[in-house]
Design a protein that fits this description.
The structure holds 3 protein chains of 3 kinds.
Chain A (H helix, E strand, L loop, with lengths): L2 H18 L27 H9 L9 H20 L2 H6 L1 H15 L9 H7 L2 H17 L15 H5 L1 H5 L17 H23 L9 H6 L8 E5 L9 H5 L6 H4 L16 H4 L7 E5 L2 E5 L2 H7 L14
Antiparallel strand pairs in A: 1-2, 2-3
Helix pairs in contact in A: 2-3, 2-7, 5-10
Chain B lengths: L2 H29 L8 H8 L17 E4 L6 H6 L3 E4 L8 H4 L9 H11 L4 H5 L2 E5 L3 H10 L5 E4 L8 H22 L5 H25 L8 H11 L4 H21 L10 E6 L8 H8 L3 E6 L18 H13 L11 H13 L4 E7 L3 H16 L4 E6 L6 H23 L1
Parallel strand pairs in B: 1-2, 1-3, 3-4, 5-6, 5-7, 7-8
Helix pairs in contact in B: 5-7, 8-13, 9-11, 12-16
Chain C lengths: L2 E7 L3 E8 L2 E9 L4 H16 L6 E8 L10 E2 L2 H15 L6 E5 L4 E6 L5 E7 L7 H11 L5 H7 L12 H13 L4 H23 L5 E4 L6 H11 L3 E2 L8 H16 L8
Parallel strand pairs in C: 1-4, 4-5, 6-9, 9-10
Antiparallel strand pairs in C: 1-2, 2-3, 6-7, 7-8
Helix pairs in contact in C: 2-8, 3-5, 4-6, 4-7, 6-7
Classes of the chains: A mainly alpha, B alpha/beta, C alpha/beta.
Chain lengths: ~325, ~425, ~270
């Protein structure tokens, strides 16, 4: 089984479960570290961010009571999910990520070249997701509290990220729900926010078509998940000594992470933007240079043989048969 | 006697001398019964050097011949455009004196030999090239196009020297794309997605055999000599990749059988040497031959003409033409351990890994006189090996056979030192 | 109008040339033997006899070669370099060629002489320390191969790719040749290889003194067509070998010097 095929299969199944799971009475809770949007009626699980934003729009005092416990519980569940699968939520489960991968497939089917970030742009735009994250925490807090004697933020700013999240518009469509495709003129704020989201939706389709996983580099969920990079049970290890720095990994990486190629000292290579899609391990031609482990047990290791197989050379390869 | 006639006779002289050298090398080899039988296929290619290299290059008459230098010229592109690549890096002492007419004394013998063969009709494929691609790797190569462009059509590929930078990678990619256009112009065949994919796979198949071969070489006792390993890869210079792959497959089969039967080419406890530094090209096999004659084994090498030649692989990701070109450009630039690049990081790791994998007891660092990039790295490598407790012998030489006896003495002493150390460790 | 004789006593053979003014009337080659004066006297007498001449008609005799000082009956002696140069220039003028380089291979030495455009010796190199690249080496080769020395050249021409003989020393080369024979290598290839080795050596000497056309090749081994070809290949030039017996060039030169001495009283070297 080739890993990228397996991944597509897992993504497709996850997509079905997360978008249509409700039809089969599947409910995996509302604390999932993935974009299983709460606006999808038949969802099989809910995105953590919407609940998180709701829970945050409370006066500070309430956090000392029930609300605080609920928030901690939610965060605990989120953390648990995250620790078990680490970033594989992004690379293997996220329906929004799956959509982007499919758009990339369509692009490559039509023989359209992919676009890449410049290195400086790439580094600079990494921080955008943190801006989103900070805002999606501060704005809800500002709705219920007043900072430095400023006025409270109006109610129509509630769940600000969801308001501008393109997934909210796109994913319900798969449920036959086109209602999210509209601009809400009820207030100035909603009008601006819904206009922004429509622009972002349009942007999503165009950018995700020409650039792999464009949205992910801005995703605040990735920022949250990356808190668990180093303690996640699923890990990506690198043996720098065996690495020839051929650059296959960073070129194939949908997130264009350069560390995977450049790093020769660090061993844990789950970086901020890594989605653990394992494409790098697939295209690595050096034995044991890259390795995925679950609880420290290797589950997928780079090898010459595997590399060639994945490159479409299925004929029996004798490599290693008689190696000393 | 006019000038033309003189050159013709000079060519004849060089040809005769070369033929004698080939004979000198292959006479004892042919009598060696312990050698793998399947080496004969590769021997044939070099034996054609006695008749002007006619038939050395395996190509159809209609196919365009694209000469390449160094290992930076993407052969995938040449095959995809319907051409036949031939790597022209030369190792013949005979043509050095011809090259000296064009180059300063301080130039390395390799470039002298190459210029010699290009300017004088000795080996036919040097003149038959429809295009010669020269990467501006070292300073000698950078100037080569200007020297030989009267004799063959040349395209220079500029090389970035700091491969870590974004701009240098983009630049190299653009050079690869330009090269693609140049090759297409010569062959009259466009490099399409499917042709390039096919060419990549063809070379990947060769790499399967290449890696298999190197796995076999790790076996104890050694089943093939280091010089034969050089020869096998050297044959790839001239052969069509598919015929080479087929020949390699049969050789590997034979070698595996030898591993099973524990048929060794060396005496038990033979000294295991690793050789690195300036490349060795046929017929400059004096050091491996000396090692072998002294009963040592060259278990591995780290040469751009041998171990490094086919090691790195093109990883096709999306399979688009541009993606594949990008992958090809990266494969030829990024993992290269050539000392023309600013850092030795990759070479250091690779060397240590090879020493470990092949259990080499000592390292011979070969420098061709005038090969500055490798010379510059000597100290760094020496220190690295010292820190890792691996003895190193530095040998600076050229193609002339005159210093063979001195080399023999030095290498013998080095091997004795290694043996002494082995005893010390045991006791 | 008178006769002049030149006697060249080499290590292997003694050569005598008899000139009537500037024309060769006869020459003779014979093994030097142990007593070179004896031999010289005998050869000269035989030559006169052959030509039906009284020995007394010879006005002047010049001796040259290794044994020149042993020939007491000679009127003068001259070094073989000068004699060789005179002989070569004379042969050259006979065929209308300006000789600039002379290669001479003798029985136990070999030399290369460079001349300027006036025919004056400019420079010369000599190998008289070892037998490598000399006639002696070729003789040894013949002995091992069990062939006649006259067959060497013809055999050498049959070879397409000569076998490289690494040893330049005649003694080591001998053992190398023996082992090559034992390995069943073709005689022709070995001989051609040996010729090639000599040519290489001479080529180096020639390069040292400077190569100019026309190249003149004399001495006994000049008879060897294989060696001549090897030299031509090595030097990348045509080589002129005197049409008659190339061994006698030096003797002819000595005779010419004898004449000059008689006519113009030029003394190059007095009798010791």
């Amino acid at each position: 089984m080739k890993v990228y095929r397996l991944r597509i299969a897992v993504q497709a199944i996850s997509f079905i479960i997360l978008i249509y799971g409700g039809l089969f009475y599947i409910d995996m809770g509302n604390r999932m570290p993935t974009f299983s949007c709460a606006y999808v009626d038949d969802r099989g699980g809910g995105c953590f961010l919407i609940g998180f934003q709701h829970m945050l729009s409370r006066p500070f005092g309430e956090f000392l009571g029930d609300a605080g416990i609920r928030l901690l519980k939610a965060m605990g569940i989120f953390a648990l999910w995250s620790i078990v699968l680490n970033k594989a939520w992004c690379g293997w489960i996220c329906p929004f990520g799956f959509l982007q991968d499919m758009l990339s497939k369509i692009r490559s089917f039509f023989d359209v070249d992919l676009s890449r970030f410049g290195w400086i742009t790439r580094t600079r735009y990494k921080s955008v997701k943190y801006i989103f994250l900070v805002l999606l925490i501060l704005i809800p807090l500002g709705i219920a509290n007043s900072f430095f004697g400023l006025e409270k933020i109006p109610r129509d700013w509630s769940v600000p990220f969801c308001q501008i999240c393109p997934a909210r518009v796109i994913l319900p469509v798969f449920n036959g729900d086109f209602s999210q495709i509209h601009i809400d003129f009820s207030s100035n704020t909603t009008m601006v926010l819904t206009t922004i989201v429509m622009v972002l939706v349009a942007l999503f389709f165009t950018t995700a078509f020409v650039k792999r996983r464009f949205f992910c580099s801005y995703c605040p969920m990735l920022a949250l998940l990356s808190l668990f990079d180093k303690i996640g049970l699923l890990s990506l290890k690198k043996n720098g000594q065996r690495c020839t720095r051929c650059g296959n990994c960073s070129r194939a990486c949908p997130m264009e992470i350069r560390e995977i190629e450049e790093e020769k000292v660090l061993t844990n290579l789950v970086t901020q933007d890594c989605t653990l899609c394992l494409r790098c391990v697939e295209v690595c031609p050096e034995d044991k240079a890259l390795e995925t482990r679950f609880c420290g047990i290797p589950i997928f290791t780079a090898s010459q043989q595997g590399f060639l197989k994945r490159q479409g050379l299925d004929e029996e390869s004798h490599t290693n048969k008689n190696g000393a | 006697m006019d000038k033309q006639e003189k050159r013709k006779r000079l060519a004849k002289k060089i040809q005769l001398n070369l033929a004698m050298t080939v004979g000198e090398i292959f006479d004892p080899i042919d009598e060696d019964t312990t050698r793998p039988k399947k080496m004969a296929y590769f021997d044939r290619i070099f034996k054609t050097f006695t008749q002007g290299g006619e038939g050395a290059v395996n190509r159809k008459k209609t196919q365009k011949l694209i000469g390449t230098y160094c290992l930076f010229v993407p052969e995938e592109i040449i095959y995809a455009a319907g051409g036949q690549p031939v790597r022209l890096c030369a190792g013949a002492y005979e043509s050095v004196e011809v090259g000296e007419e064009f180059l300063p004394d301080s130039a390395c013998p390799m470039v002298k030999s190459e210029v010699g063969f290009t300017t004088l009709p000795v080996l036919s494929f040097y003149q038959q090239c429809d295009l010669v691609a020269i990467p501006a790797s070292c300073d000698w190569k950078a100037k080569m196009a200007e020297i030989i462009h009267d004799y063959v059509p040349v395209v220079m590929l500029d090389m970035p020297k700091v491969k870590e930078g974004e701009a240098s990678r983009a630049f190299w990619l653009s050079e690869v794309k330009r090269f693609t256009k140049e090759v297409e112009k010569v062959t009259g065949m466009r490099v399409t997605r499917s042709r390039l994919r096919g060419a990549i796979q063809m070379i990947q198949k060769a790499q399967v055999q290449f890696r298999r071969f190197h796995e076999i070489r790790k076996a104890e006792p050694p089943v093939i000599h280091g010089r034969d390993a050089l020869e096998v890869l050297n044959a790839y210079f001239y052969d069509h990749v598919e015929s080479w792959t087929a020949a390699m497959a049969t050789l590997n089969d034979e070698l595996e059988e030898r591993v099973n039967n524990r048929e060794s080419v060396a005496k038990p406890m033979a000294t295991r040497l690793l050789i690195t530094g300036s490349p060795m090209v046929f017929p400059n096999w004096k050091i491996p031959t000396v090692i072998e004659e002294l009963g040592g084994v060259m278990v591995a090498d780290e040469f751009c003409t041998s171990n490094r030649y086919l090691h790195d692989k093109v990883a096709v990701d999306e399979g688009l033409l541009s993606d594949m070109l990008h992958a090809i450009a990266d494969r030829y630039l990024l993992p290269s351990c050539c000392p023309i690049f600013s850092t030795t990081i990759d070479r250091r790791d690779r060397l240590l890994q090879l020493i470990k994998d092949y259990r080499a007891e000592g390292v011979i660092y070969h420098i061709l006189k005038g090969c500055h990039p490798y010379d510059v790295e000597t100290r760094i490598i020496e220190k690295l090996l010292q820190d890792n407790g691996v003895p190193m012998l530095k040998i600076e030489t050229d193609y002339s056979p005159q210093d063979v006896e001195q080399l023999r003495t030095r290498i013998e002493a080095f091997m004795e030192t290694l043996k002494g150390q082995r005893h010390k460790e045991k006791s | 109008m008178s006769y002049y004789a030149g006697i060249d006593i080499g290590s292997a053979t003694t050569k005598v040339a008899l000139l009537f003014e500037e024309k060769i009337v006869g020459h003779k080659v014979a093994p030097s033997g142990v007593h070179c004066e004896e031999t010289a006297r005998k050869v000269l007498a035989e030559l006169c006899q052959d030509l039906d001449l009284e020995q007394s008609v010879i006005t002047n005799i010049t001796a040259t070669g290794y044994g020149r000082r042993m020939v007491k009956f000679a009127n003068s002696t001259i070094s073989e370099i000068s004699a060789n140069v005179q002989g070569a220039i004379w042969y050259g003028s006979q065929s209308g060629q300006a000789i600039r380089t002379i290669i001479n291979i003798g029985g136990q030495d070999s030399k290369v002489i460079a001349l300027d455009d006036q025919g004056v010796t400019k420079n010369f190199a000599m190998n008289d320390k070892c037998a490598a690249g000399t006639g002696r080496f070729l003789e040894t080769l013949c002995r091992i191969m069990e062939i006649n020395i006259t067959e060497l050249g013809v055999l050498a021409l049959q070879s397409t790719v000569p076998i490289r003989i690494n040893s330049t020393c005649a003694v080591f080369a001998e053992s190398e040749v023996v082992s090559l024979l034992a390995r069943g290598k073709k005689k022709a290839d070995i001989i051609a290889g040996a010729h090639h080795g000599i040519a290489k050596r001479l080529g180096r000497m020639t390069k040292r003194v400077g190569l100019e056309d026309t190249v003149f090749f004399d001495g006994g081994p000049a008879l060897n067509i294989g060696l001549r070809k090897a030299l031509e290949d090595e030097l990348i030039t045509d080589i002129y070998v005197p049409p008659e017996v190339p061994q006698v060039t030096t003797a002819v030169g000595a005779a010419l010097i004898a004449r000059e001495q008689k006519l113009f009283g030029r003394h190059v070297e007095e009798v010791a």
